[in-house]
Amino acid sequence: MNYVLSDSITQPITTDNFLAVEITNSKQTSHIIKVLNEKYPLPHHKHLRRVKSVLVEGRKTLHVLLCAVADAADPTASCHHTILKDTGIPSEALAAESYHCQAASRQPVTRAQYDEACKLWPTFFHEDQELEKKLGLIAMSEFDKKCMNLAYQLSNHGKGGFKCGAVIADTDSQRVMGVGYSMSDAHPLKHSVMVAIDSVAHQQGGGAWSSTARITSQYCSEISPASPKAKKKKMETGREEDYICTGYTAYLTHEPCTMCAMSLLHSRIKHVHYEMATKSGALGSQYSLHYDPQLNHNFTVTRKQLDELPSD
Amino acid sequence: MDLFGEANKYWMSKALNEAKKALDRGEVPVGCIFVCNNEVLSTGSNKVTETKNATQHAEIVAIDEIIEQCISKGEDNENLFNSTTLYVTVEPCIMCAAALRLVGIGTVVFGCHNDRFGGCGSVKNVSQDDIPQYGKPLNTISGIYSEESIELLKQFYKGENPNAPGHKKKIKV
Ligand SMILES: [Zn+2]
Ligand SMILES: [Zn+2]
């Protein structure tokens, strides 16, 4: 399975155009950087290193960024001379001809983006180890597989348009906390996820739908006998205890629709795994509610990759 | 259409009454009423605490009641929802806006906007976006008794957490 991440993480870097020049007197390098940073800062490109070194026939040469072409008053080579005049850098410290080059327009967030960016021009980068772990193919645990199998088993009972199955579980205590399958034949809102959330509520002494109570007792006890302990879970700080799915993982046969994805968000789900993407899905397809910066709760999402699906 | 006409104001005042009931029960004060041909189909208010189910917003509670009625009468709910208007004190959230499209509601009239979760333009435009399997977009009318709707929410959050430093008066539904 793979994490469903935002484009800023998974997409290749974008680039901007710059004016650069070779430093011919390397002893002047630190002075050149200092005056350029003062008079010609790069306010939109703070992630770029000002100087890069390039090996030319075994000889190290240094190159400096003069300005971003978009920021330059006169984006032609004559700009080079204007900059010399403005900064007082002696003309013999730099090559006579400046040149245009490309560099990353944003700070890279992954090592892959960083490597790509540095081929153009070196940048600053802070590796996020947790993020790096989410980039490749991720293996499912035995408990994940067990929950996913139960979700498929449940989906067979589905009635209505989509035959979906949903399992909500606490991976820490390895307990199934709620189950659901599509009942949208009789009730247009009884999607498997809505049913599963109500099932969790039933397990905890609440619940809105009587049909959910039945399947909850049927399936949740099967894998994990409901005990008073099951109702207690590790609480995080703050007011999260008000929400029934805090810390839980949802296992879904299909990518949830907008209603279902938002209901998982309202319930403060920690992680969602789904197998089949759907056109109207809201965790990567139609919308990506799980990493929307405007929403007050974010969660992680994984999905099965196409090449993992059995071919029939 | 007389947007702020007497009929709309009348029904919205009924929705406000529902919201007040939720406040009295310690729930987030959002109330709604579903009206078809000048007849009340159902009323609803937030029941998240009571049911321990975070999806039990006023709209979901009231839709549920209508569907139950249809099932017991053996009637089809699709045509009914089509000619029904929902009056709700706060802009439906992303989940509820989606639910309203799934049942095929005719028109939605709401009071104040919902900056945190609004699904009719504030955060996402679920009401208007082209979404497969979600039927036609929703007709929406906003701003009727919006001050009164916000006031109820303020009362709720004031009562709950009066000392929260720099607590923004944002709406949580
Ligand atoms: Zn759904
Ligand atoms: Zn809602």
Automatic annotation (TrEMBL), chain A:
Looking up CDD domains in the UniProt record yields: nucleoside_deaminase (cd01285)
Q: Name one GO molecular function term.
A: tRNA-specific adenosine-34 deaminase activity
An individual GO BP term: tRNA processing
Record's SUPFAM superfamilies? Answer: Cytidine deaminase-like
Q: Name one GO cellular component term.
A: nucleus
Task: Domain (CMP/dCMP-type deaminase): give its ranges.
Answer: 142-302
Question: PANTHER family of this UniProt entry?
Answer: CYTOSINE DEAMINASE FAMILY MEMBER (PTHR11079), INACTIVE TRNA-SPECIFIC ADENOSINE DEAMINASE-LIKE PROTEIN 3-RELATED (PTHR11079:SF156)
By what name is this protein known?
A: ADAT3
Give the organism's phylogenetic lineage: Eukaryota, Metazoa, Spiralia, Lophotrochozoa, Bryozoa
From TrEMBL, chain B:
Which keywords are on file for this protein?
A: Hydrolase, Metal-binding, Zinc
Q: Which Gene3D superfamilies match?
A: Cytidine Deaminase, domain 2 (3.40.140.10)
Q: Which CDD domains match?
A: nucleoside_deaminase (cd01285)
Q: What would you give as a GO molecular function for this chain, any one? A: zinc ion binding
Q: Which domain of life is it from?
A: Eukaryota
**Which part of the chain is the CMP/dCMP-type deaminase domain?**
6-122
Transmembrane ranges, per UniProt, are none
* Pfam families membership: dCMP_cyt_deam_1 (PF00383)
Does this entry carry the keyword Hydrolase? yes
The alphabetized list of GO BP terms reads:
tRNA wobble adenosine to inosine editing
Instruction: Return the PROSITE patterns for the record.
Output: CYT_DCMP_DEAMINASES_1, CYT_DCMP_DEAMINASES_2
Identify one Gene Ontology CC term for this UniProt entry: nucleus
What the entry lists under InterPro entries is as follows: APOBEC/CMP_deaminase_Zn-bd, CMP_dCMP_dom, Cytidine_deaminase-like
Q: Give start-end ranges for the coiled-coil region(s).
A: none
Output the PANTHER family linked to this UniProt entry.
CYTOSINE DEAMINASE FAMILY MEMBER, TRNA-SPECIFIC ADENOSINE DEAMINASE 2
Q: What is this protein called?
A: ADAT2
Q: Which species does this protein come from?
A: Bugula neritina (Brown bryozoan)
